[in-house]
Write a structure and sequence with these properties.
5 helices; alpha/beta; 132 residues; 7 strands; single chain; globular
């Protein structure tokens, strides 16, 4: 981390991040994602990172372009209220929050991001889709 900081400050390198996720669940335990490290480097180097992944809307728009689909034809399903659901919605893609993985009950009442749908698992989402 210090090596990256020194490059940013002394060599005037640009800070590029693959995302801003806070954490994820691995082997049943929460693990820091890239976001906290990016935030620390942004703060220490006095620069904003260029984000090349979630939750940046350009990430989702690039996916739409590569698939040849419109936002209306796509639904993002994820367990991260901000990076998955919020990022998708900023790109005008519907966002479905699934109560698995890193989901917590507080996600259902997020102060900013309001999922288009909340489901317990992917099977429940398939059932909802098939009923329409």
């Amino acid at each position: 981390m210090n090596h990256a900081f020194r490059l940013l400050k002394e060599k005037k390198c640009k800070l590029i991040s693959l995302g801003k996720g806070k954490y994820y669940r691995e082997d049943g335990q929460l693990t820091l994602d890239v976001g906290p490290f990016t935030a620390a480097l942004e703060f220490a180097s006095d620069q904003n990172a260029m984000v090349c992944g979630k939750p940046d809307p350009l990430f989702f728009q690039a996916g739409l372009m590569s698939l040849g689909l419109t936002a209306e034809e796509v639904v993002m399903v994820g367990d991260d209220i901000v990076s998955d659901v919020g990022g998708a919605q900023k790109a005008n893609i519907r966002g479905v929050l699934v109560r698995t993985g890193k989901f917590t009950a507080q996600d259902e009442n997020h102060p900013v991001v309001k999922p288009d749908l909340i489901v317990d698992n992917l099977k429940q989402l398939v059932d909802v889709i098939l009923q329409q």
